[in-house]
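Input/output pair, single chain:
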Amino acid sequence: MNTNKLLIALVIVLIGIIATLYPPTQVASESTIEEDISSPITVELLEVEDPGEIKPYDNLVRLYSKKYEVSYSLMDAILDCENTERDTSLQSFIKYTQAKVDRNPRWNVVAGERERSFGLAQIHLPDHSYVSEAEAKDPDFSIEFMARNISDGRASMWSCYHKVI
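Output:
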């Protein structure tokens, strides 16, 4: 019992010492804060059409549309059309027709099988053999892929491009 009282007394003394060494800082008024700022602070506000609804991966669409100097609205519209749910693991539900297979023998696909387009941007792997399925399903990779290709003038590779322009 005496040990507990001794510990409590020791803690109180330590708190007193700490409070003496490190007194609480005074909260500055707004005018003091403004006078103390040596350089301006820049805050970038993002314009959102409906502030109540921020779509999945919107931050990446904004980042890469700015990096590649392409339209955020165009990228957003293509993504909404290609992948309404913004599901990173989505494989296209469209099936290859015999006519498509005949026109594109290098694709090495069979009529009736599901199109090999994956991820948020629905990257068609037979046309982009250097892209793996895992990369196509990666949000960062696929959104940057879209921005880079739109910037390079290849927006029409997405069938939805013609629907949203």
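The beta strands are 117-118, 123-124. Confidence is low (pLDDT under 50) at residues 27-33.
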